[in-house]
Amino acid sequence: MGKRAQQKRAAKHAKQAKQRKAAASRNAATVAALAVGLPQLPSMDDYDFSPMPTPWSDFTDTYPTVDDAVAAAQDAGGALSCFSFDDSGEYERGLRQGDDGWTYEVTLYPRGSLRELVTTCWLNTDDQEQAIQQLRRALAEYVPADLRHPDIEIVQRPSTTTVPRIGWTQHVPLAGLKTWEDVRLAEKDLPLFDLAPLADSPGGFCDPLPEETFALFGAHGLTVRNCAGCGTPVTDRHPHWPGVWVSVEHEFGPSCDRTRLSGRESEQSVPHVVDAAQARPAGRLNGKEQKVQCRNCPAHVTLQHPDWPGVWTEAGGDSSPVCAVVGSGCDDDRAYDLIDCVYPHVPAGADSPAFDAIAAAKQAGYFFQPQPILF
What we know:
Number of helices: 10
Strand content: 5-15%
Number of strands: 12
Largest sheet: 5 strands, antiparallel
């Protein structure tokens, strides 16, 4: 390359560099001008990494000392409690006045599949008052002999709905306890906390209960029903699903996970069955069924699906009888007593066996109220 060519090339590179520098300067000025009108992002130092407040921490903030809580409990008629949960279980802590004076009380409640068994047993019985006593005896025997303790009682505590709230409880005398740290130290070794794994499903929150547990509850005179397909406790007395075997704890409701029985998955929803001989493969629509629009979701539904006789079921797709409505939700203490179940389709301009039952259940207040999803 000649000298003149080298000079021209160097001049070109210098010009390009100058242009790039000018462009960068303009871009920086533009970004700075825009940043003035934008909210400033906090630095990591501005974030609060303190633990999230819990219902119990709110309780102790409201009543800074044990004496403050006792005074409030006295005004409330002799009892004051706080419902909360953590990874190990669902608890109710509080103060209660008894024959021997004031005590601090911790109650552990069943959850997951065990809670579902308790609830369905209660729904399945004709004498629900008697069922409460039977459930108390069943839960007492459910605890292995080496974990039983004379100070642990099985009690029924006030519920926010008609569904009974039954659990294991233990007391600590309040005499000499002035601060919540005193209370924490007094409760930390309670034998009650050894029962926390029992209050849940054996292998996890949604794992099925062993047959021995169903047999134990049945031996106490309770009406026990579990699905032969997936093992979940079921009832056919859910007011939203009259005459349909349904789960009251999990989001599947009347739909069974047949994989535990057949070893294969189906894209279609199939119902719970209490007899394994009834666990047939999913049926098919013929496309000629009479169908109507559901009043709460976009699905077209039919009463003529072979898997769901007499139940309004989606006429296509996964043929689900479950409608796209959601529960309203509420605080933890109220949610525990609610039967968290999915809702049936309600056809527009046609009769539904669930329609009147849902209206009646709203009056009872023990189910999540349906809210249509807006599409």
